[in-house]
Amino acid sequence: MTALSAGRLAGRRRRRPADAVFKFAAAACASIVLILLAGMLLRTTWAAWPAFRQSGLSLVTSNDWNPNLSKFGGLSFIYGTLVTSLIGLVLAVPVSVLIALFVSEVAPPRVGVPLGYVVDLLAAVPSVIYGLWGVFVLVPFLTNYVWQPLSRNLAFIPLFSNFASGRDFATAGVILALMITPIIAAVSREVFRTVPEDERESALALGATRWEMIRLAVLPRSRQGVIAAVMLGFGRAVGETIAVAYLIGGIANQITPHLFQQGSTIAATIALQFNEAASVPLFKSALIALGVILFAVTLVINVGARLIIRRGGRSA
Amino acid sequence: MMSLKSRHRRDKLMVAAMVVAVAVAIVPLGFILADVIAKGIGQLSADFLTKPEPYVVTAPGGGFGAGVRGTIKMVALGTVIAVPIGVLAAIYLSEYQAKGPLATSVRFFADVMTGIPSIFVGIFVFTVVVLETHSFSTWAGGVALGILMLPVIVRTSEEALRLVPDTLREASLALGIRRWRTIVSTVLPTALAGITTGILLAVARAAGETAPLLLTAFGNQLIVPFGKWSGPEESLTLEIFTNSRSPFPSQQARAWTGALVLIAGVVVLSLIARAVVSRRAKLPR
Question: What pTM value is reported for the model?
């Protein structure tokens, strides 16, 4: 009897490595996520080093992008990225938050849940299709019915004067708004969901209307989470490439207050110029450097947003 | 203090604003789908899915066979890379030391990674694969897609594994079954529906990527055989991109049909993914 169980135990001990190996494999795979992120930063920074050394700070402070003369001042791309992303946010934030409120607070689940899926579908549409549709459908529509009338009647405001072609900062901003609406709406929806039911009921019991209940119970508790949602949307807008490459014109060195003029963004420039750059080492390095800057910016935005969300999740 | 009447009026106004906001988001989605179907369905045929673009690209006819093949190859490679790593990583996050420093940071940075611009992943793979092998290739495109799929699979698989009740694990362990066997034969099969959903969503996302492929697969109008993985590769998205930027109507028409094929694939994948989840949700606990 004892011999038997001792034998079994020994057998077990022999098989024990399987457990350790499996755990090690799982831990190794988990570590790959961290190694990848670090590797991406290091490897691309290394590839961008020649451009960083040649151009230094002028990479982000100079507005002279002329690859033929080895001038790599990317300020206009940073400007274009910020302008288009801000237009996107201004349009998308109120719409997304209202959608999230409707889905989580007002609509009965029978309506709200499928509606949430439909809005999520906006995120499933590939960006190349946003670009294609944007060029052939949205540009003519906005040009005829919105941009030109605006430009004609409000020309005294610099933002709206000097209409060019319909492929411009404004149109790129509109398409970005459409593309970031689902992420802002989805994250806000999750945030609203964490508000305790008691607080809603207390507000309603005191005779609040639905909107007052939202203003008194839901919004004050969700402010940070909604800020995080907006940051995530901003990160997406900053990094969006193909749809913007279609719609912004891809013109370098354009820093102008006129929203109806062509320009370019960091991501769109990388996509549109990489072909030419592949055979010119310094040019290629400069585009990779722009990519590193883009990565650093989106990394900071995303880390910030996730920290806010995590803190919110813990206190709730 | 506002009168009751004006409070109710404001309430109605705000709810109306919400309904308008929903419409503002859904109407463009409707137009996108309708336009892609209307402009794309004309040229849709079996040939479109299998034949390459005509030798003279401005001629009508031909199809995106090269892109369809390339997309299938590269998404398959991305899946083969990302699924085992992603699911194993998720197992670590949910089954081992879920609150340890490694799990906490991996969970956090996987979330962060989903927000990294896809073009940057393209740049990275360009530097590690294209520069090293001196060639754009199917390999490079697939690796880029795999990296983009990885964080999605890690997070959705972890969520799915966490839904597996502890009683199942305890029952298995109490029978003297090893931890790893318990995970492989009890926990994983129970979470399979949720993991599948995550994989399908990641596949749909990867199939729709353009920017990273521009820097890794590059594009190639000629059909690359299934067995050839070196040298430039086409994708459905790259073909839509290049054709739609042409001034010739025949190429623009092909771009719309390509968009129809792509959107149909992506939407079907997303719907299947949802269906898998909701069927699981209906099962008795």
Answer: 0.93
